[in-house]
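Postdoc handover notes: sequence design on the structure in folder B. Input tokens:
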């Protein structure tokens, strides 16, 4: 499916939640777990010239501080072709595992369009492989993140050990839980916010606002 001019795509995101105590039940080799960082769901659309940064509510993301040159550094398409990246923009001034603020960082976790090809019908595993090819797997000082640029990272994906990963990584306040994504789950056209919810579930640390 071709994507040849900017139009908004509702990003894939989980709607249903599971208790962290039940993570071992879901650790069955059919899902991929990604640490969920505490920020704003953000989608970046760029063709190398035009760049649009949107939140999950189809509005421009406010308080976005990454430079255009840094955004350009993740553009890996043929000139003029569209790239659409989905991630978490950290804008809540949460602390990392060292107690330091980890803020104004983009954490990529999915790709929706590459070289103007809207990846409808691709599985989540296939899209992780595309991200591997585009950006590599360069470790950072965060065990749960790959490094791309100074302020842009990729979240790591895990095939097993969900309970222990949850327990270890959520020690950092910036990590609020895990998102579990079905490996074979195919990307649907993002025409509404409820598209692509059936192939994902979330599990988060209990807070005053969220039971889990």
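Designed sequence:
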């Amino acid at each position: 499916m071709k994507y040849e001019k900017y139009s908004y795509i509702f990003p894939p995101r989980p709607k249903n939640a599971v208790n962290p105590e039940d993570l071992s039940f879901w650790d069955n080799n059919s899902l991929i777990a990604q640490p969920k960082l505490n920020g704003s769901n953000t989608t970046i659309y760029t063709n190398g010239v035009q760049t649009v940064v949107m939140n999950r509510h189809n509005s421009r993301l406010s308080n976005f501080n990454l430079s255009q040159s840094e955004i350009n550094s993740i553009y890996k398409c043929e000139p003029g072709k569209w790239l659409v990246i989905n991630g978490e923009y950290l804008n809540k001034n949460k602390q990392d595992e060292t107690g330091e603020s980890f803020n104004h960082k983009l954490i990529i976790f999915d790709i929706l369009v590459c070289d103007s090809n809207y990846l409808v019908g691709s599985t989540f595993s296939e899209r992780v492989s595309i991200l591997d090819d585009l950006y590599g797997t360069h470790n950072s000082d965060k065990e749960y993140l790959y490094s791309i640029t100074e302020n842009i990272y990729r979240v790591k994906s895990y095939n097993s050990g969900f309970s222990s990963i949850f327990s270890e990584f959520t020690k950092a306040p910036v990590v609020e839980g895990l998102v579990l994504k079905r490996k074979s789950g195919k990307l649907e056209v993002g025409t509404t916010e409820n598209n692509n919810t059936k192939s994902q579930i979330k599990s988060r640390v209990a807070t005053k606002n969220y039971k889990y």
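Context for whoever picks this up: Helices lie at 23-26, 68-72, 124-135, 162-169. Don't rerun without checking with the PI first.
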